[in-house]
C-alpha cells in the first residue's frame, strides 16, 4: 500500500480536471504579469512596453516599464516561494493554520537580518540570505519544540499558539533593535513592511540558487507529505522515515521562506491563503497541490502589488499591507470553519 491508495479520494479529479485548472492558472499568471508591467502610477502603452523589452529607456514610460519588469519577476518568484512554503508547512504539521508568518518563521528571519544589519553592519544580499535562512530555521525549530511540549505532542492548536506567541515576541525584539540604531531604523522599518518596490535583477540574482534549491526539495517532498497526512504511525507503516521526511520537507520550506524574506522583507498570509484555495481545485494530493500553490502564490502577490499601486495612486501601498488586508479575514474564516478547539 502507498499513500496514493491509502488516502481516500487522493486520486479523484475535481470537477473540470486538474489539467484544465493548471492551464487557466498559468494563463492568469501571464495576464497579471502583463498588467503589472503596464499599470501603475503612470499607465504606459504597448509601444513603450516593446521598446523597454528591447532595452530602451528614452522616455518616461519606457523607464517605468524597465523598472516594473524586475519588480514583476520578483513578485512572481516571491509569491511562488511563499505559497509553496505554506503548503509544505501545512503538510508537515498537518495544521490548516500553518503559514510562515503565523508560525513566526518570517519574523525569525526578519530579526536575524535586523540584528546583522544593526550590530554587525552587513550590507550584501548574499549575507542577508544566509542570515535570514539561519533565523528562519532557528525559529521553526524553536516553535516546533515549544509546540511539542506537554501531552499529545505537536498538535495543530499548540503549534499555532506557539507560533503566534513567538511572532509577538520577535516583533518586539525587532522594534527594540531598530530603536537602538536610529541611523538604520528608517531602512529597516521600510523593509519590515514587506514589499517588492525598487526590485532589480542584481538584487534578485543572489537569492535564486536558494529559491531553486527550496523549490526542488519542496516539490520532491510531495510523496512524503501525502504519507504524513495519514499520521506518523501510518506513514511509518508504509515504510517512510517520518523524522527524515518531516526534516527534509521543512528544510525546503525554510529555504524558500528565508530567501524570500531576505529580498522582500516579511510578507504574511500568502502561505496561508493560497494552499486553501488551491485545495478546492486539486484536492489533497500534494503532487498537484504543491505546483498549484506555487502558481497561485505568484498570482496573488502580483495581483496584490497591482492593487497596492492602484488603491493609493499616485502613491503606493506595499504588498505586505495588501496581503495582510486579504489574509486576515481568511485566517478568521479558517479558524471559524475548523472550530479551532477540535484541531
TrEMBL record:
<feature type="transmembrane region" description="Helical">
    <location>
        <begin position="20"/>
        <end position="40"/>
    </location>
</feature>
<feature type="transmembrane region" description="Helical">
    <location>
        <begin position="159"/>
        <end position="180"/>
    </location>
</feature>
<comment type="similarity">
    <text>Belongs to the binding-protein-dependent transport system permease family. FecCD subfamily.</text>
</comment>
<dbReference type="GO" id="GO:0022857">
    <property type="term" value="F:transmembrane transporter activity"/>
</dbReference>
<protein>
    <submittedName>
        <fullName>Iron ABC transporter permease</fullName>
    </submittedName>
</protein>
<feature type="transmembrane region" description="Helical">
    <location>
        <begin position="72"/>
        <end position="89"/>
    </location>
</feature>
<dbReference type="InterPro" id="IPR000522">
    <property type="entry name" value="ABC_transptr_permease_BtuC"/>
</dbReference>
<keyword id="KW-0472">Membrane</keyword>
<keyword id="KW-0812">Transmembrane</keyword>
<dbReference type="GO" id="GO:0005886">
    <property type="term" value="C:plasma membrane"/>
</dbReference>
<feature type="transmembrane region" description="Helical">
    <location>
        <begin position="289"/>
        <end position="311"/>
    </location>
</feature>
<feature type="transmembrane region" description="Helical">
    <location>
        <begin position="317"/>
        <end position="335"/>
    </location>
</feature>
<feature type="transmembrane region" description="Helical">
    <location>
        <begin position="101"/>
        <end position="120"/>
    </location>
</feature>
<dbReference type="Pfam" id="PF01032">
    <property type="entry name" value="FecCD"/>
</dbReference>
<keyword id="KW-0813">Transport</keyword>
<feature type="transmembrane region" description="Helical">
    <location>
        <begin position="253"/>
        <end position="277"/>
    </location>
</feature>
<keyword id="KW-1133">Transmembrane helix</keyword>
<feature type="transmembrane region" description="Helical">
    <location>
        <begin position="201"/>
        <end position="225"/>
    </location>
</feature>
<dbReference type="GO" id="GO:0033214">
    <property type="term" value="P:siderophore-iron import into cell"/>
</dbReference>
<dbReference type="InterPro" id="IPR037294">
    <property type="entry name" value="ABC_BtuC-like"/>
</dbReference>
<keyword id="KW-1003">Cell membrane</keyword>
<feature type="transmembrane region" description="Helical">
    <location>
        <begin position="127"/>
        <end position="147"/>
    </location>
</feature>
